[in-house]
Inverse folding.
């Protein structure tokens, strides 16, 4: 996929605002013009497997308003003939970066989690909801959320540095 370079930024941006996202290791950085066009949760098998999660949340952006500002050469692509789509990943850390569909040549879809700040769209749609897995947490209220402490590092260092998870 050929995204516009930074030199084309001024012509494509009406709001004057940009939002940046990056992969896990920081090798690849993506920038979009604010706001994104739309956002949704994708429950399809392909997205579930590509992200290793119950579903993926994407923002959809006009291709001409999306730029790779760092790490273009570190992007690997997988073309799926079955879905006629292309998924791009960071070749260093494996983070999903872009999801493109043949039927939408002017749009590019980016995982929402790559962005720390707001993208201008809240995900309000569920795509392929019929593929929702029975193990997906849906906040039905049967099991209240509990906070647990999860330690990182060696057994000797447990408790010193940890993360709080909700489950």
């Amino acid at each position: 996929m050929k995204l516009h370079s930074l030199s084309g930024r001024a012509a494509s941006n009406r709001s004057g605002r940009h939002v940046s996202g990056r992969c896990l290791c920081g090798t690849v950085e993506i920038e979009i013009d604010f706001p994104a066009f739309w956002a949704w949760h994708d429950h399809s098998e392909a997205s579930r497997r590509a992200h290793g999660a119950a579903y993926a949340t994407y923002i959809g952006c006009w291709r001409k308003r999306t730029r790779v500002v760092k790490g273009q050469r570190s992007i690997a692509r997988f073309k799926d003939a079955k879905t006629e789509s292309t998924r791009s990943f960071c070749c260093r850390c494996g983070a999903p970066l872009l999801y493109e569909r043949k039927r939408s040549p002017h749009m590019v879809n980016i995982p929402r989690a790559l962005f720390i700040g707001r993208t201008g769209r809240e995900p309000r749609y569920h795509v392929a909801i019929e593929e929702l897995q029975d193990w997906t947490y849906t906040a039905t209220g049967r099991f209240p959320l509990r906070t647990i402490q999860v330690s990182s590092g060696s057994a000797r260092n447990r408790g010193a540095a940890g993360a709080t998870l909700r489950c």
Remarks:
- The helical segments are 9-12, 45-51.
- The first strand starts at residue 18 and ends at 22.
- The chain is about 5% helix and 40% strand.
